[in-house]
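To assess whether the prediction recovers the assembly geometry, we first specified each molecular entity separately, as shown.
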Amino acid sequence: MTSSATHSLAFSAGLRLAKYSLGVGDRFAHQARAQLRACLMAAQRGVEIVPVWNKSNREHLIVGSRPGSVRAAAEKAVRELGWTGPFHVDADHINLDTVDGFLQSSDFYTLDVAYAIGRPPQPSKIDAFIDGHPELLRPMELQGRGFSRQLSPQGLAEIATKYLFATQEAGRIYRHIESALGPGAFITEVSMDETDTPQSPAELLVILAALSDEGVPLQTIAPKFTGRFNKGVDYVGDVSQFEVEFRSDLAVIAHAIDAYGLPAQLKLSIHSGSDKFSIYPAIRRALRDTGAGVHVKTAGTTWLEELVGLAEAGGDGLALAKEIYAEAHAHRDELCAPYAAVIDIGAEKLPSPLQVNGWSSRQYADALRHDPKCPEYNSDFRQLLHVGYKVAAKLGQRYLDMLVACEDSISRNVIANLYQRHITPIFLAGDASAQAR
Ligand SMILES: [Zn+2]
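The predicted structure of the complete assembly is given in tokenized form:
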């Protein structure tokens, strides 16, 4: 009890993440203004959605950019559009090896401990954890919140064995950042999504108890949900099972805030990989029913809207979009390798570069833009281009100059994609999604 109460005080101070927040990626640092405009449009409808610019170390390495460039682009957009709300810069998927480069410029840290799942902790730590948490063995019924469970001593020991080391690792990374920046100076997320097996709600509860023991004042947690969250394409899995699990996770989080003195604003972070259109109505319903907040992280798919915009601009823009595809096609194995866990590309379904070279603006945009109703939409083409940003990075200034030349058609696509396909169904949809039930 005492330790909970102490945590509670410590956990409640400092920088606080708003109820609704949206993680946006901007690989080439040219679309922050268009992304912010989508948030402004939501604000005009009375809903505050705080933008969080996220970029992982992997993206920085591939693009050849530095973490400071993300903050610079965000601040410029905020100034130019007169955004008065909060915004954050997320050091996405960092660990002890990669965090230091972000300390100057990030105020949001995603502690990625997925790699530590399954590493056995010291046996004495497992015993100490179980002894310290007799409540986890009591039957639990989170009334009206759709979650009940009874863990056996063996079941609890198995979960602790699987996750305790990872939560200790989160503690080590957290303390490293805290010693550099000071407590309360940054927002902490813990992510476990980049792994093969999903975490059940019962596992989430144990993980949260252990993170509280470690003194990690997390404000968001990104579990691996059931189903596949491939980059830039729709959800693959059982939507109704997802909804049940999502609601149970919300119940577990609400319970853990009280039980373990975690920050009151603690919420789920969905590393969506963008475009999970088929689960957005389920998320919306759950948020409306429970009043919970959420952080939805989108992937760097804004870069695909750049390509759509280049294609729609025609002329040199379209020619460059075709050139990028041809290069990506030629180097597809190398480009896909770092993303193997989060893409599914059927090589035989990819159009040949020769074919693509004959396409009009509309054909290119229709194949790439994620409109599931459009018969020309090609998810294999889209996924390959999604991981193909290294090709554009190699073009350097030539690519960036074209972004400026085609800015009108690009920003139109960036805004429409974020606002219509993400913000509206997740945060704004009212009766329309209720009817879809
Ligand atoms: Zn992730």
